[in-house]
Amino acid sequence: MHGVWWHLLLAVGFGLVGALVPVLNGEAFIAATLAARLIGPVEVGVCLGLGQGLGKMILFQAVRQAKRLPILHRTSAEHPPPEPGSWRYRWARLVEWGTALVESPRWGPLGLFLSGSLSVPPNYATTIMVATTKINFAVFSIFITVGFIVRYVVVAFALTGVFKQLF
Asked: Domain for residue 101, yes or no?
């Protein structure tokens, strides 16, 4: 029974590191875990999702605290405002729209959930962008973590069905 705890902690740890180093693939971890029959689909999905959520919380706090560094504060005299019609102007408008969307009480949590569950918008970029807004850390943590858990449990169940067909 003690071996199960080790596998659960390994899933949380893999998810945490995978959240910070996005080349580590959670779906591949699920496939390997289920193929080896180490833990069940619900357990691997929940633990991997919790690990991903914890990793994104760490990244969120790192970005939020780093934006307070004095070196990152530039004066507006360094960069004149972008001219309408320029790419900088379009980008600035897109960032303003995205920030308003994320900070919205209705659409912000939904966007975070979709980022965790579907990677639309991509969750690494979303985490970095959201950390620069005024969104509540608890709202971010809950909705992105629940999104990851749902994603990985669904993937684990799908792969379980695939492995049952193959073996």
From this structure: yes
